[in-house]
Amino acid sequence: MAEIATRDEQLGVRSEELFVNMGPQHPSTHGVLRVLTRLDGEKVLEAEADIGYLHRCFEKIAEKRKLFQVIPYTDRTDYLAAITNELVFVMAVEKLLEIEVPPRAQYIRFIMSELQRIASHLLWFGTFAMDLGATTAFLYAWRERERLLDIFEAVTGARMLYNYLRIGGVRNDVFDGFEATVEKYLRDFEKRLKEYHDLVTGNRIFEVRTQGVGVVTAEEAIAYGASGPVLRASGVKYDVRKADPYLVYDKYDFEVPTGQNGDCYDRYIVRMKEMEESVKLVRHGLADMPAGDVMGKVPRRIKLEGDTYARIESPRGEVACYLVGDGSDQAYRLSWRSPCFVHLQLLNIMARGGLVADLIASIGSIDIVMGEVDR
Amino acid sequence: MGLIDHEELPGIVTVPLRRLVNWSRKSSLWYLLFGIACCAIEMMATGASRYDFDRFGMIFRASPRQSDLMIVPGTINEKIADRVKVLYDQMAEPRWVIAMGGCAINGGPYHGEYNIVDGVDRVIPVDVYVPGCPPRPEALMHGVLLLQEKIAREGLESRAAARA
After folding, report:
1. Which of A25, A53, A72 is closest, CB to CB, to B79?
2. What's the complex ipTM?
3. Of A297, A256, A240, nearest to A84 (Cα)?
4. What fold is seen in the domain A58-331+360-374?
5. How confident is the model at residue B128 (pLDDT cuts 50, 70, 90)?
């Protein structure tokens, strides 16, 4: 405010700050996000996110339904990474009930969640590039994503919201020839990934729009509790898959890509490299997948007692589930940690001092899913 | 439409005005890009490479002022409901609405919860309901084809008058 006043005095003009309301219907807010912005000309003074337009009572529903009935709702929190959301919920229940999951089911979960990471990042790649004006990338990314969804559909029966994981295993085994189909896809995908780099990464317009834009320092990211690619782009090498291994992640060696500057460009590079790592992990999983059952022994009468906390690395960051049981067969309380909710609080830091167009780039780069923010 | 083979006037088409207007309306349904929830991803898929909405003459528009069709892809809660109404009011007549997915039809899996509006038809009139959770792109395209059939049957008087 004071700055504007002194500048006005020097220039001999009178200006005032502008309040602009962006959303909830806006093509680049990735859902129903409303951003309240205070502008000085084209410069953003403050950007505040207004959420709650997609609050769907998930945590309350989880208290009212039977445990297996909650799994479809976990799909619908983060609908771009349904498998990882199911995974964290069933992991919490399995931890509380001490259910052993057979190795084959573990591997299927592992492969599916890494494929899900690729699918989610692909969609992010397409929409992020489209936010910055590169519509072609969107169509390219969807081409590959559709093929991946075909694999998901063949395994689970659904394209997006799978309801595939079960407490104690997975609903059904993979189809015959699953390994060959996925391997064929991965081979093609690696070629396509190079194509994406050719198309977008070296693009001068893309670089100018993203480099040095939406900077989050490592201290800020840690202070706000960021996780996933947003945290790693700021240079913090933290990944739940390494820090607290679940499934079979401790058996395999993989890179945790990090950035240095914490800008939109680094977040982009981190996600692109993560897709490469996911390809490697899926290959490992396919090679080592053992034969056997896909469902473990689950007691017919479930008694949830005590509380537990399970966490995983979803494509967006650390998703966690805090589950409390009171001796009945339903959850007494379920609390969900969603990474997007945390990252959205960083929006003001990213956007402050930048241009309005950079605000769009910042929103795109944190990869928000409003279903997960509002739950 | 009838193509007349007239020797003096080649290439002349005679058609009732109503059919010509309806034909042009149904063949360029520009839809409002208003992604609410999970179904929005399937709506995007329908617009993207494989399913390709463009071949129906459908292009997404970011502004309600330029759109003819509002696809409501997702759960309507108390907070978004009045925004949906505002967006619908901002669209110019003639306008159509497709309720996509269980949530927009009657709340779907969230039916009866606090904060949930059980169906978008409690806020705005709906022309076509597309069931599914989420509906496949094929289902949405089928819904659009049904809407086109419906538009082809419409009269020339304003829709508001026809409803009254």
Report:
1. A53
2. 0.85
3. A240
4. Cytochrome-c3 Hydrogenase; chain B (1.10.645)
5. very high
